[in-house]
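Figure 3 (text version): structure tokens given as input.
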């Protein structure tokens, strides 16, 4: 007997909740903000709108469905099931934070603060939740390209916007870089890290590097099977080169990095707490992931 679908509501702590966790009481949080020229009223207003949106979305889940909630900080410990329909209630970035833990489940993005969020990934309003959930299996969905990093010890990391490889602090990363499958060890480099991004990430960090370099390569579209990569601040020296500092990857192509420092980290979409750690001699391959994000439109 097949299980009823499960609606998984993904949310994150509001700014007000984070202030209370830090300062203990509403009054202390209000004093902290006022001493910096801000009013707590606007923060409480956004908190109230977010909580109201969560209540409305939860109430719209069909009665025959199961439901669950998960906060962003717990995503790496939450087990998504194949029959889940994921409802992200919040900002665009929360969709990206969630995507790496999914394997083809449809995602509905609900904007809790229209006009404040760009709405690139959270495209719907609370009132749309019920119809979208009931039609989720047959709804038209965009297949957004994702990027993956696979280490030689089988560690794997997915990201919707970008993957960063580099030092955990402000030290210099040392490694060898080259196309996957190329004979030879690759070019020795010293830099502040490597960024590999998708079309969805082309409005953020990837775009800033693209603009800085004055790249003539067009940015990919979100559903396009193409990635761009850039080396950040490569340092030329007698032992390190700068001939490979940018490029693009299509389906089946990969970029291989071999570590030549004590420790490098690999994380996606700004989630530094959920990073891969690599040490001297390890290698990692970056390319287009087999998995894509199914964003319900």
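Below: residues designed for each position.
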């Amino acid at each position: 007997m097949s299980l009823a679908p499960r609606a998984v509501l993904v949310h994150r702590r509001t700014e007000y909740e984070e202030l209370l966790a830090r300062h203990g009481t509403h009054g202390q949080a209000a004093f902290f903000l006022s001493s910096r020229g801000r009013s707590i009223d606007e923060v409480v207003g956004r908190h109230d709108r977010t909580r109201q949106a969560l209540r409305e979305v939860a109430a719209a889940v069909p009665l025959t469905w199961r439901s669950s909630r998960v906060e962003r900080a717990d995503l790496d410990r939450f087990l998504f099931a194949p029959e889940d329909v994921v409802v992200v209630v919040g900002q665009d970035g929360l969709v990206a934070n969630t995507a790496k833990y999914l394997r083809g489940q449809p995602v509905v993005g609900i904007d809790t603060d229209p006009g404040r969020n760009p709405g690139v990934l959270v495209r719907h309003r609370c009132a749309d939740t019920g119809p979208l959930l009931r039609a989720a299996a047959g709804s038209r969905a965009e297949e957004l390209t994702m990027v993956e990093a696979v280490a030689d010890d089988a560690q794997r990391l997915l990201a919707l916007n970008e993957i960063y490889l580099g030092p955990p602090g402000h030290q210099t990363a040392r490694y060898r870089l080259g196309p996957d499958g190329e004979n030879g060890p690759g070019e020795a480099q010293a830099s502040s890290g490597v960024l590999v991004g998708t079309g969805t990430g082309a409005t953020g960090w990837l775009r800033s590097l693209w603009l800085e370099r004055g790249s003539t390569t067009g940015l990919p579209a979100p559903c396009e099977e193409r990635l761009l990569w850039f080396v950040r601040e490569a340092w030329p020296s007698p032992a390190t080169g700068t001939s490979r500092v940018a490029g693009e990857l299509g389906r089946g192509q990969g970029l291989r990095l071999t570590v030549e420092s004590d420790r490098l980290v690999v994380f996606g979409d700004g989630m530094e707490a959920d990073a891969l750690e690599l040490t001297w001699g390890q290698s990692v391959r970056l390319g287009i992931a087999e998995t894509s994000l199914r964003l319900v439109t």
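The chain has a mean pLDDT of 93.
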